[in-house]
Amino acid sequence: MRIRSIRLTLFSLLTLAAFSAAQAQRLPAGVTPESYTLALTPDLKAATFTGTESITIHMDAATDTVTLNSAEIKILDVTAEQACDGCTNGNGIRLTGTVAYDTDKEQATFTFPDTLRAGEATLHLHYTGILNDELRGFYLSKTDRRNYAVTQFEPTDARRAFPSWDEPAFKATYDLSLTVDKGDTVIANTPILTDAPEDGGKHTITFQTTPKMSTYLVAFLVGDFQCLSGSSDGVPIRVCATPDKVQYGKLALDVAEHTLHYYDTYFGIKYPMPKLDMIALPDFEAGAMENFGAITYRETDLLLDDANAAIPQKKRVAVVVTHEMAHQWFGDMVTMQWWDNLWLNEGFATWMESKAANVYNPAWKYKQDDASDLDGELNEDAQATTRTIRAKADTPAEINEEFDGIAYQKAGAVIGMVEHYLGEETFREGVHNYLAAHLYANATAEDFWNAQTATSHKPVDQIMQSFVTEAGVPLLTFGPEARNKVEKSRVAVSQSRFYLSPTSTGSHVQHWTVPVCFKAEEGTSQCEIVSEANQTIAVPRNKFFYANADDKGYYRSAYTADEQAKIVAHAESDLSPAERLGLLGDTWSLMRSGQGSVGGYLDLVAAMRNDGEAMLQDAALGKVSAVSDRIATEEDRKRLKAWLVATYAPIYAKLPATGGTLDEQQLRAQLFGVLGTAGDAEILAEAHKLAEQYIANPDAVDPEVADDAVSLAAKSGDAALYEKLLALSKSANNPDVQTTALYNLSSFTDPALVSRTLDYLSSGGVRNQDSWILYMLLLRHIETREQTWEYIKAHWAQTKAQLTVASNARLVAATGVFCSAAQRDDVQSFFTANPLDATARTLKQTIDTINDCTQLHSAQEPNLKLWLDHNAPPQ
Q1: What is the mean pLDDT of residues 38-44?
Q2: Whole-angstrom Cα distance, residue 825 to residue 653?
Q3: Which member of 299, 324, 346, 704 is catalytic?
Q4: What is the C-alpha separation between 862 and 631, in angstroms, rounded?
């Protein structure tokens, strides 16, 4: 599953956050499902459904009870059938059972009047359920025209659609049929087998039997979907959506056709299903979900106007498609044994997504995206409240806790580090060997890294074990370079856990087995293993040494002052763009930890101001924005804005007004936003002009600057502009235009208009898949932060009603924008008095984030003031 993250100017949104633990809720051993036959009849108007189900099971021992998962389902009756080879009449037995529910464990237990023998039996069930509005299980998705009935089962919500053994190791086959209205169709995991008319203007669609798969990968989607069709390597591929939006699926279809062939070749195993459908849903919480053969997406992550979309939106669609398609092999065909190894599924797909997308379009420079994502995750993981990659996950709450940046970005970065150490072909061979050994079965992380160890004959098992079981980020501190007796260069290196906060400490000494790859001449690298607290290692003979070739290492690096100066001096000429991003990130994080000054970071930004790599400037200036928000006083902020305008306006003026390279287009858009936020009068005037043009005709405005133009205009916008954007957010058919208009309602700073947005949110006027995003944006903006928080507290019942299980934690995390002890205490006391489900760890992380900010401000604001005295233009 690709977790939803939305890239806007100078920030990215949060991923799924943490959930609290409860008592163990695993199913008892001894009964295993072999196959399911499901017949469902949804009523889209009444928001209910009925179901009949037959489950073939195998029992290890005789029993008179069977327990499985069930939630929000009313089981009307259950019977068990079992052949009776020894019976004189040859008929076997049929037992009617009673049902007992354990709602806390989301389980149902069937008790039968006689004992079922060990071996095979069949359960027959009739039940009813609800099409909920919680974006999980079998739920309603709505447009202005009609309702749809769709599914989202990962991780533990198949049990809301059919009673089942809802754990990944219980793989089974599925025979599915749905009876729906005559004008509707159904899309499911496999192709349609039959379509038969029924009385009452309905028809029953029956699907081919699935391969063995886990419950969370089952999907069925009911509505009037229409599709674009293509194929790759003989496999039919479709992109489907509501009828008014299907035309926006062309790019996604092209990416999927290219990627399926690429993955067939890379994995050395053909795509395992007879077809591939990708379906955009009007209401969908995550970015996408890898249901086997029927991948579901949020509309903005699959659909766009290819002719008029900005490059970041195109890149986003491509990378979400490649992520979900990677899961068809790595997760669907071979599935983790249990949710504590979710990180292997999601980390692998996160690593693989950019690899495949970069092959699709190398000009989009996904390596720089990887470096930027790595830097962000290293900072998140450097908090005291981080977790280990593999963590306890026995309950639905603990399982949901696994879906965070650790499982995605950190795990993906560690996998990428191992590939870089082994070499691409050796690593690919290990992936093939792992998949081939576990086809249509379950596996553990040890199975994966043991396959890599056996293939490469290198200590992958030791590397992975250390990064999976140790929390946090290694800091590698390098001493001065020295020559030994045979004239080989060597350097002393020590390792310790790195914390962003200088006051954080660990409870025990930590060590990792780290593959450190030094940059060598002509773009090559030389790798050494660091496994001791202190050791010396060989470094390549070079004019300087840089200890993170290609920026693939999952660690922070610290050098002597002399070596750091050499690296900075050679950065533009000798470091790759990804390596320069790594250098920038290390410099920032070391400053955060008290091992540098904000002035030193700003000096590096200034030294790189003419670097033409758009991603590097985006990262550099994004952290300058953080300096403004987290370190600066109001007076500092004014002076910093003046420095930005003085420094970057001349660079912006030299860029081509239209056209140019992709980097020039992206850089122009970035500087447009930065200069406008800094108060450049010409940029602001242009923004207001472009915003009006965009509202009148979105296609008439350069898509690269459209969002920034609307945001800047809204910041000082009046009620008339607000009304126009609100109307556009409701009328736009293009998902990207709709979200640009909707999300920028949060950019208005007039208190009366902020109140209008908050009232609109609390009234339920915004889909709950989007409402948390607007709350978060309003909290992130300095001008609207306080008003938003006071409103949330005063209108808590209405605010809470707009949240889902997942977005509970997102709202709590969004309050981490505050930066004082009084605000920290206010956040702590409010959420203690008004707890949200599954947010205990998130609240701890949020409090740590606020504490870190107060410490950072106290430590670095005097340094910022001093730097501005020497560098900012006179007032």
Answers
A1: 98
A2: 46
A3: 324
A4: 9
- Beta-carbon neighbour count of residue 202 at 10 Å? 15
| Number of other residues whose CB lies within 10 A of the CB of residue 420 | 20
Dihedral-angle region of residue 583 (phi above 0 means left; psi in -120 to 50 means alpha; beta otherwise): alpha
Model confidence at 841, in pLDDT bands (50, 70, 90)? confident
CA–CA separation, 646 and 640 (whole Å): 10
CA distances (Å), origin 447, targets 327, 416, 451, 546, 636: 17, 18, 6, 33, 54
With contact defined as beta carbons under 8 Å apart, do 332 and 278 qualify? no
Q: Measuring CA to CA, how many Å separate 523 from each of 422, 519, 582?
A: 16, 7, 16
Q: What angle do CA 327, 329, 332 make, to 5 degrees?
A: 65
Annotate 317-350 with b (16+ C-beta within 10 A) or e (fewer).
bbbbbbbbbbbbbbbbbbbbbbbbbbbbbbbbbb
* Gap between the Cα atoms of 402 and 342, Å rounded: 7
Q: CA 733, 737, 743, 748: dihedral to nearest 10 degrees? A: -120
Residue partners of 744: CB distance under 8 A and separation at least 6: 707, 710, 711, 714, 725
The contacts of residue 78 (CB under 8 Å, 6+ apart) are 96, 97, 99, 110, 123, 124, 125
**Residue 769 — φ and ψ, nearest 5°?**
-70, -20
Helix (H) or strand (E) holding 127: strand 119-130
Known catalytic residue: 34?
Answer: no
Answer for the pair 383, 461: CB distance below 8 angstroms, yes or no.
Answer: no
Per-residue burial over 43-73, b if 16 or more Cβ lie within 10 Å, else e, is ebeeeebbbbbbbbbebeeebeebbbbbbbb
Beta strands in 414-453 (DSSP E): 442-443
Q: 806-820 burial, b if ≥16 CB within 10 A, otherwise e? A: bbbbbbbbbbbbbbe
Beta strands across the sheet bearing 473-483: 534-538, 489-498, 473-483, 556-558
Distances (CA, A) of 225 to 195, 276, 282, 768: 16, 15, 11, 22
What would the pLDDT profile of 482-515 be if each residue is shown by its tens digit?
A: 766 555 688 999 999 999 998 888 778 899 999 9
What backbone phi and psi angles, to 5 degrees, belong to 274?
-75, -10
Report helix, strand or coil for 196: strand
CA–CA distance, 490 with 414 (Å, rounded to integer) = 26
Is the distance from CB of 305 to CB of 352 less than 8 angstroms? no
Alpha helices in 575-702 (DSSP H): 577-592, 598-607, 614-630, 634-654, 662-677, 681-696
Omega within 30 of 0 (cis) for the link into 480: no
Give the closest residue to 384 by CA, choosing from 691, 221, 552, 593: 593
Q: What backbone phi and psi angles, to 5 degrees, belong to 52?
A: -120, 145
Take residue 524 and report the two structure tokens written for it.
């090559």
Amino acid type, 134: E
Residue 322: in which H helix or E strand, if any?
helix 311-329
Alpha helices in 717-839 (DSSP H): 719-731, 735-743, 751-762, 768-780, 782-794, 796-801, 805-814, 821-833
> Sign of dihedral through CA atoms 112, 114, 115, 116?
negative
d(CA 856, CA 563): 26
The values of phi and psi at residue 442, to 5°, are: -115, 155
Summarised one tens digit per residue, pLDDT across range 361-403 is: 999 999 999 999 999 999 999 999 899 999 888 888 788 878 8
CB 432 within 8 A of CB 268: yes
pTM exceeding 0.85: yes
At residue 125, φ and ψ (nearest 5 deg) are -130, 145
- Can you tell me the mean pLDDT for 474-480? 95
Say how far apart CA 299 and CA 279 lie, in whole Å: 9
Residue type, 35: S
